[in-house]
Amino acid sequence: MIKNPIAFDTPFDTYTALDIIGEGSAGRVYVVKNASGEEFALKCLTPQRITTERLKRFKNEIQFCQNYSHPNIVSITDTGSILVKGVKCPFYVMHRYAGTLRTLMGKLKPDEVLPLFSQILNGVEAAHLAKVWHRDLKPENILYEQRENRLLIADFGIAHFEEEEIYTVVETKAADRLANFQYSAPEQRIRNSKVDHRADIFALGLILNELFTGEVLQGAGHRRIGDIAATYAYLDDLVELMTQQNPEKRPGSIEIIKLELIARKNKFVAIQKYDEAKKQVISASELPQFDPIRIVNFDYGDGMLKLNLSRNVPSGWVQEFQNPRGGHSSILGYGPGQFVISGDIASIGVRDDENFIQQIIDHAKNYVNMANAGYVQQIQEHARKEEQQQKAALEKKIAEAEKRKNILSKIKL
Length: 413
Prior knowledge:
Layout: E1 7-9, E2 14-23, E3 27-33, E4 39-45, H1 52-67, E5 76-84, E6 87-95, E7 99-100, H2 101-104, H3 110-129, E8 132-133, E9 142-145, E10 150-153, E11 160-161, H4 198-213, H5 225-228, H6 235-242, H7 254-263, E12 272-275, E13 280-283, E14 295-301, E15 304-309, H8 315-322, E16 340-342, E17 345-349, H9 354-409
Antiparallel strand pairs: 1-2, 2-3, 3-4, 4-6, 5-6, 7-9, 8-11, 9-10, 12-13, 14-15, 15-17, 16-17
Helix pairs in contact: 3-4, 4-6, 7-9, 8-9
C-alpha cells in the first residue's frame, strides 16, 4: 500500500493511487480508485525517466489504444498528466485485469492452450493490420480477463507505428535496451538491424511452446510440445518455423500461422482483415459494410416509369430485388420481376394513371428495402461458403502432406 495516496486528476475524474502493481523501464503501474470508488489500473511515466523519445512513444501508445478498438487489445478509458518534482508526467487509465498470461502459465490443460493462443494471435494480428509492430511481446504484457476468459495485448511502449494517424514514427534506437530480452528476436539484439513484425512472430513462437512445456525455448534439445501432448505434436514444426534465427524464414504474417492451425481443424481460429470503410479490424467472414440503396427520384413519360436509385447497384442486388426472399405483395403483372434495372435506374412500363403510378412507387420502395436486406444475407452466405471452402482445401492439403511424409519416412533406399 502507498503511505501517502497520490491523486491523478483528469478533466472528467480523479483517481487515487492505492498501490504499485508494476514498474518498467519508463514508468509505473498503479491500482487506483476513481471518485465513484471503482478500481482501475493507471500507467504513468516517472519524472526521472522522461525523455522526448519516451514521451513520443507514450503518446503513440495512447493514440493507438484509443483509436483501434479490438476485443484482444487493451482499451484506454481516460488520460491526463500530473506534476511530479516539477516535471509534467503523462498517464493513462485502463480496466484493472485479474492477471496476465504469466498468471496462467503452468495451470492450463493442453486442450485449453490453443483457444487462448488464438486470442493472442487475434490481438497481435489486429495491430499488424494497422501497421503496428509490438516488439515487446511477453506473458507479462498479455493481460487476462478472468470473467470472460479473455486475453488482451497491452504495453505498446516500444512498438513501431506506421499508421499515418499516429503522432510520429518512433524507431527503437540501437542503444536502447529491451526489457523482454528473453523473448526478443535475434535481430533485436544486433545493432542497426531491421526489426519489424516478424520479431513479434518470433516471440509468439516462444510463447506457444512455453504454454505447453512451461519452458522458454533456448537452443537445441529443448522440451517439445509433442513430448507433453502428443495430440499437438504438429505444433512443434510450426514453433520451429516461427522461431527461425533468420526473420526471412519465419511466416510472413499472422494469417499464415492461422491458416496452418485452421488446416488442422482448429475451429476457434478466425481469419481477420482490415476494413477500410470501418477503419477497424474485423473477422474476414464478418458482414462487409453495405450502404443501402435508396430511391432518390423518379420520372414518367411515354408509358415508362423510371426510378433513380442512389447509386449503381451490384448484380447480386438486382437478383434480390427481382426475386425477394420470403415473398412479397404486388399489383398483378407489375411485380418486382417486371422491373428492368440498369446502373442506377429501375424502369417499368405503367398505365397513364397517377394513382396507379403512386401504388407502383410505394411497392417499389418495399422491393428496394427487401433487396437491401436480401443482399446483406447474400454476401454473408458467400463469405461463409468461401471460408468453408478455404478450410476444406487447407485440411486436404495438410492431410496429403502428412500422408506423403509418413510414407517416405518408412521407405529405405
